[in-house]
Each structure stands twice: as C-alpha cells, then as structure tokens.
Amino acid sequence: MAKRDYYEILGISRTASAEEIKKAYRRKAKELHPDRNGNNPEAEAQFKEVNEAYEALKDPQKRAAYDRFGHAAFEGGMGGGGSRGGGGFGHADFASAFSDVFDDLFGDFMGSRGGGRQRASRGSDLRHNLTITLEEAYSGLQKTIKVRSAVTCTACQGTGAASGAEPQHCPTCSGMGRVRAQQGFFTVERTCPTCAGLGQIVNDPCRECGGAGRVEKERALSVNIPAGVESGTRIRLSGEGEAGLRGGPPGDLYIFLDVARHPLFERDGINLFCRVPVKMTTAALGGDIEVPTIDGGRSRVKIPAGSQSGRQMRLRGKGMPALRGGAVGDMFIELAVETPVNLTPRQKELLREFERESESQDNSPESASFFTKVKQFWESMKG
C-alpha cells in the first residue's frame, strides 16, 4: 500500500514553518498516543506514522530531500521505521523525535529549557513584619528598618571564585545545569549532581563566601509608609531581597504592616470610634465635654440633656485618611453614662431625695416601658 504524504499525516501545508510542524506533531502525538487509545487497534500504527512524518520534516535537510524526491528520498532505510542503518528512523530516532515534544510540554516545569540560565539565578524574595502605631498610620512616616539577608560578596563580586578567577563550565552537564537519561521512548531529565544545577563549578572558591558568591549581612533600609495604611498592607521594595546566585538579580523585600491596637480609638476602615464615659449628671442635665482626636488635638462636644448610654455622635473629618483617593473618615463618639460610686452620706441622701421626688414623674421612660412589658409577659404566662 502506498505511503501517505507526510504533510497530510500531520495535517499541515507544504509551506508550514518549523514551529507549525512541531505544534501539529504535538497535537497528533497527544491525540494518537497508544496509552490514550486502548480501544483503537489502529492507534499505535497511526502514532508511529505521525512520528515518522515528524522525524522527516523537522530536519531541514531531510525535509528538502522529501520535498524534492518524496518517499523515494528515504529508500534504503531512512523511512523504513525499523532500520538502524543508513540514517534510518529507528528506536533512537523515535525517542529523539518524541523528546522534542516532551521538552515542549514539560521543559519549563523541569527546567530543561535554557538550563544554563540557572548559573545566574534570581535571589529569593524576603518578608519583613513591621508594627506601627495608629498615629503613625494616620500621618504616615519614613522609617528605618534592619534586615539581615544574603548580599553579593564584595571579595569575589558574586562569582564565588577567588583571586578574580572565573567559574568554569561544569564538565558533567556542559554548563546546562541538567543531565538527561534515556528511558524507553522518554528522555528523563534531572539536576546535574556535580554543579547542583548551576552549570558552573568553582575550582578555587572565595574564602569570604566559601564559593557561594553571597554572604549574610544586616542592612539598614529606609521605608516610606504612606498615610492611611491598615493592618495587612504590603509594601514592596524592589531589589532589596536576597542577592542572586552567580551575579543574578536580587529578589524583592515585602514589608507586611500591622497597626497596633490603640488605648482610645477603634478603627473600622477610615472611620474611628471612641467610647467616652459621661457623668450621670452631665447626661441628665446636658453639658459640654472635650474628646481627643487622632491628630493629637481636642474637640468640644455638646451633650444633649437626657442622653443615654450607647448614643453616638459624629465628628466629621476626624477619622483616618484613605490610602488612595484623598477621602477622610469620621470619628464617632459613643456615650457611656457612668453610675457614680464611693458616694458620701450626703450624696446618698440627695439621691434618695431625688428618687422620692421622681416617683410621681416620668423621668425614666425606658425603664417604665421595660417593666410594663415584663408585667404583660407574666400575665400572659398565667393565662
């Protein structure tokens, strides 16, 4: 039976680029792989046909020969599928073809692509937790922090080699940082055991860093904390993380802020809440009180006569600034009417006199309403 056209097998045109050929092969190989087509007896033969077509078309010289002479270009073994001589497409060629797609599918995950790039790998990101006061969150500040991390060794300039020597290519992996082993149809890749994936070895290591190219050091960094930050706000300092290996770029430093609890104010977003004790006489007769504000100032608040515990009063624009947008929150005063303690005999007598005077008057409407409901409840239970 006449062999099918290789372009037809892969479903591509004769003008297809090398990338289009690889994509078509990857798609067909996944579709026809025998492991995924157990119920299709023809899948294995079709899978081999696809691999044969890809092996011929991925190589520019073989493709040129096929375009000129067709299948006759490979007579004598090249296109036979089982021959090992005369440049034929045998087991090793199949493994090589499938390895290309394996790299394409899993190369980024396993690090096979550009393994030599690990020679100058990026440094790790760092985290630093910083606690500030509510007043500092209100006004913003410039703060100096101390961070201990790995920095580039100045003695060897990050190369890890002493006396200005340059690291050498690893002879095991030829500088790629990865080594391959053939296992059946697959090429398995792992980190080079000689250079630990760096692609380079240091014959004469630097005495300061022991060949690591980095040393531990404490640094003082200035951090700009904007007004309006909240707990959980993250500030990124680019390039202030750990130094990279073999002269690679440094990582970043992330500062996570925590705003400490305040003895006077509770925060909810951009609003502040302050619980203010009020004397019983002031709550009953009315009056003025002074309350603190987060900027360190004072605000005078008028207490209406007959105010009860839990009553809230708003001071507009006395809250926290928004981190973005320029808005400013409000401050809410919650009154807490305080019952007097440690009374003198005279004070007790005055309160008893007040109680006698108020028996015939409706001075406590909330209390009267509550006990009316209690009486109705008891009567309903009896019924």
UniProtKB/TrEMBL annotation:
Residues 5-70 form the J domain. Zn(2+) 1 binds at residues 153, 156, 206, 209. CXXCXGXG motif repeats lie at residues 153-160, 170-177, 192-199, 206-213. Keywords: Chaperone, Cytoplasm, DNA replication, Metal-binding, Repeat, Stress response, Zinc, Zinc-finger. This is Chaperone protein DnaJ. GO terms for biological process: DNA replication; protein refolding; response to heat. It holds the Pfam family DnaJ. One of its GO terms (molecular function) is heat shock protein binding. One of its GO terms (cellular component) is cytoplasm. Signal peptide: none annotated. Coiled coil: none annotated. Belongs to the DnaJ family. Participates actively in the response to hyperosmotic and heat shock by preventing the aggregation of stress-denatured proteins and by disaggregating proteins, also in an autonomous, DnaK-independent fashion. Unfolded proteins bind initially to DnaJ; upon interaction with the DnaJ-bound protein, DnaK hydrolyzes its bound ATP, resulting in the formation of a stable complex. GrpE releases ADP from DnaK; ATP binding to DnaK triggers the release of the substrate protein, thus completing the reaction cycle. HAMAP family: DnaJ (MF_01152). CDD domains: DnaJ, DnaJ_C, DnaJ_zf. InterPro entries: DnaJ (IPR012724), DnaJ_C (IPR002939), DnaJ_domain (IPR001623), DnaJ_domain_CS (IPR018253), HSP40/DnaJ_pept-bd (IPR008971), HSP_DnaJ_Cys-rich_dom (IPR001305), HSP_DnaJ_Cys-rich_dom_sf (IPR036410), J_dom_sf (IPR036869).
